[in-house]
């Protein structure tokens, strides 16, 4: 049904997957906050993804409930690209993440003979402090693998 791949780097996580559905279906799963929240595992309330919006929520998984979900949407090009900035792995409530650079997450959609090629790139890890860089990179690399599996499952289900 799908394939996933990763390219190693110290500053950038790059992963992609082929989804056997059309771009519109993938775009809705990425940009509709209710759909996004369902597969990403986050409660976003009444937020909307629009350029310039600061979107906040809470992770649903009890193991990650203490980690805030907070992104600032940068770009949205319908059915092609969405990007946001966030602070990766904000797991220590005593740490002021606002004082460090944010990473950039870019979602890209392209047509593929089997459906839609979805790519996620997260860059900017080299700007993080050495004390945080390796754990944030490792955690997000694993996280993107999980999230690509989650969106694959989500968009593959029949919609009512």
List the SSEs and their pairings.
Layout lengths: L3 E4 L4 E8 L3 H9 L1 H8 L1 E2 L10 E6 L8 E10 L3 E6 L16 E10 L2 E9 L6 H27 L4
Antiparallel strand pairs: 1-2, 2-8, 3-4, 4-5, 5-6, 6-7, 7-8
Mean pLDDT across every amino acid position? 92
In whole angstroms, the N-to-C terminal distance is 21 Å
Low-confidence stretches: none
Number of separate helices: 3
In the sheet with the most strands, the strands line up as 1-2-8-7-6-5-4-3
Give me the strand/helix succession: EEHHEEEEEEH
Helix content: 25-40%
What global shape is seen? Answer: globular
- Binned strand content: 25-35%
- Kindly provide the radius of gyration, computed on alpha-carbon positions and rounded to a whole number of angstroms: 15 Å
Q: By helix and strand content, what is the structural category?
A: alpha+beta
Can you summarize the main beta sheet?
A: 8 strands, antiparallel
Total count of strands: 8
Describe this entry's structure for a reader.
- This protein has 160 residues and is α+β, with helices and mostly antiparallel strands.
- The chain is built from 3 helices and 8 strands, in the order E-E-H-H-E-E-E-E-E-E-H.
- Strands 1-2-8-7-6-5-4-3 form an 8-stranded antiparallel sheet, with helices on one face.
- A hairpin with a 3-residue loop joins strand 5 (68-77) and strand 6.
- Helix 1 (23-31) crosses helix 2.
- 23% of the residues are buried.
């Amino acid at each position: 049904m799908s394939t996933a791949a990763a390219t190693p780097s110290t500053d950038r996580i790059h992963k992609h997957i082929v989804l056997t559905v059309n771009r519109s279906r993938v775009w809705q799963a990425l940009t509709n906050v209710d759909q996004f929240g369902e597969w990403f595992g986050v409660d976003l309330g009444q937020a909307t993804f629009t350029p310039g919006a600061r979107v906040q929520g809470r992770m649903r998984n009890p193991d990650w409930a203490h980690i805030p979900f907070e992104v600032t949407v940068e770009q949205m090009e319908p059915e092609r690209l969405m990007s946001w900035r966030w602070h990766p792995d904000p797991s220590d409530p005593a740490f002021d993440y606002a004082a460090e650079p944010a990473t950039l997450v870019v979602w890209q959609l392209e047509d593929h003979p089997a459906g839609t090629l979805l790519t996620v790139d997260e860059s900017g890890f080299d700007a993080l402090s050495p004390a945080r860089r390796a754990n944030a990179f490792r955690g997000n690399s694993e996280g993107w693998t999980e999230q690509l599996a989650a969106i694959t499952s989500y968009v593959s289900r029949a919609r009512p």
